[in-house]
Prior knowledge:
mainly alpha; 19073_t:CDS:1
Amino acid sequence: KLSNVRLTNKQKRAIIEDEAIDREQTAIKKLKKILKLSD
């Protein structure tokens, strides 16, 4: 379980940033698909 793992603030920040980057990249991919469809 992740809840049992003690994370340092630096590790937490790194995980949050990774998730934010993943979300941005998936959003960009979706936008590109939408733009291609509208051409």
